[in-house]
Amino acid sequence: MKESPLTGHLLGLHEELSGGLPGAQDATVAAIRQRAITRLTEIGLPKITDEAWRYTNIRAFDKVAFRPTAESNAALTKQDIAVLEIPSLVRYRIVVLDGWVSEAHSTLDELPEGVEFNRLKNVLEGSTDSETIQILEDRTARAGHGFEALNSAFAADGVVLRLQAGLKLDKPLEILHITQNDASSRLANINHRITLEKGAKLNLIERYVSMAETRHMTNASVRIDLAESAQLSHYRIQDESDAAMHIGYATARQDSGSCYQIFSISLGSLLDRHEVCQSLEGADAHCEMKGLYIGRGKQHIDNYTTVVHASPDASSDEFYKGILNDRSRAVFHGRIRVDPDAQHTDAQQQNRNLLLSTNAEADTKPQLEIYADDVKCSHGATVGYLETDAIFYLRSRGLSEAEARTILTEAFAAEILDQIELPPVREFLLELVRDKLVGNHNLKEAA
């Protein structure tokens, strides 16, 4: 197989830097990284000839010399962090700076009893957390594309968090990922593991922001395990530089009676690919997957979701919406698989796209694979423009055409955002989406 320039560059980087990564002297960790780089050599980074990536081309970044950096000692001030805060949000916070957990900027000392926190860096350097090491090893063996292999090959840091049984965290936990203003060509390689024991409950905010419009790459993996009756509300907000590449994937496993809710909000990056793989492995488990993506300029946004119903009497509800302007493009591939033993499954899936420009494009592929015979499943997708009748109605009430289009477009987005139960997060996102929709774009002209 012919290597792409970026693949060849990354293979060379691994040879140069692997000896200095956390846990490099540990035989088990070194073996995992070696298997990962071997896997990357075998499959390379994704190409449009790969079925799962047929609409997403990474060639725009093929010659960027991305490079991971050592743990940063940047002197960010409280004012630097304050600018990035969600107004009125009372929360616990963990800051990840250029791919490394920054304890100095986090509020770890505020975490209550029953919350077990560790850094992946510490795990790799000799912690007794063999379970996390095993998960990293298993993921390496199953790497479905080159970015997953890359993530394991350069595994260095991330958040390892466990909530003990019955603990209901009184405030949301925000993991704030910051890419600094000198981050041109920087690779932030991140691994998180979140575990909720029986009956635990958590609101998790996973945010990605850039301090400048630099061309960098974020490659982020999140593994989530929910025990019986655990509840996790997960707000994933990606608002990085419009010149960046963002690759993210969340893998979640649920036991009986657990509930997982994820809001995936994609606003930034020139290329954004987010994968969610959900496995419902206990009766009465329930998951909700809500998504909103806003495309402008030449942004490319790809959501690839998989929900596996592996047990009976479980339910899932998936609803993604996109708003695309200029020459932006969105891809949605949603797959639901119902295994033979998963009787009484209730699975719903919808994807709706609103085009604000005749040059914008949406490719959508909802998919059902049903191997049980007593189920309730549905899926659907739409791509279209603002309705002329609705615009005419608002104009007849005295609004200009631009104002009418703005109101209708914001209402389209609000159908997802209004479901967010944390008021500060909801209001913050409504304002952020409003800014993204308007910005320097005239909705009247764009349509």
Keywords:
single chain, 447 residues, alpha/beta, ten-stranded mixed beta sheet
- Overall pLDDT metric: 93
Low-confidence stretches: 440-447
Please describe the biggest sheet, giving its number of strands, its sense, and whether it closes into a barrel: 10 strands, mixed
Q: Based on helices, strands and strand pairing, what is the structural class?
A: alpha/beta
DSSP helix fraction: 10-25%
The proportion of residues in beta strands is 35-45%
Written as H for each helix and E for each strand, in order along the chain, the element string is HHEHEEEHHHEEEEEEEEEEEEEEEEHHHH
Count of DSSP H/I helices: 10
Overall radius of gyration? 22 Å
* Envelope shape: globular
Q: Kindly state the number of beta strands.
A: 20
User: Whole-Å distance between the termini?
Assistant: 44 Å
Assembly type of the shown chains?
single chain
List the helices and strands and how they pair.
Blueprint: H1 5-17, H2 27-43, E1 67-68, H3 78-82, E2 92-97, E3 100-102, E4 115-119, H4 120-124, H5 130-141, H6 146-153, E5 159-163, E6 173-179, E7 186-196, E8 201-210, E9 217-226, E10 231-239, E11 245-254, E12 259-266, E13 271-280, E14 286-295, E15 300-309, E16 315-324, E17 329-338, E18 346-355, E19 361-370, E20 376-384, H7 388-396, H8 401-417, H9 423-438, H10 443-446
Parallel strand pairs: 1-7, 2-6, 5-7, 6-8, 7-9, 8-10, 9-11, 10-12, 11-13, 12-14, 13-15, 14-16, 15-17, 16-18, 17-19, 18-20
Antiparallel strand pairs: 2-3, 4-5
Helix pairs in contact: 2-5, 2-6, 5-6, 7-8, 8-9
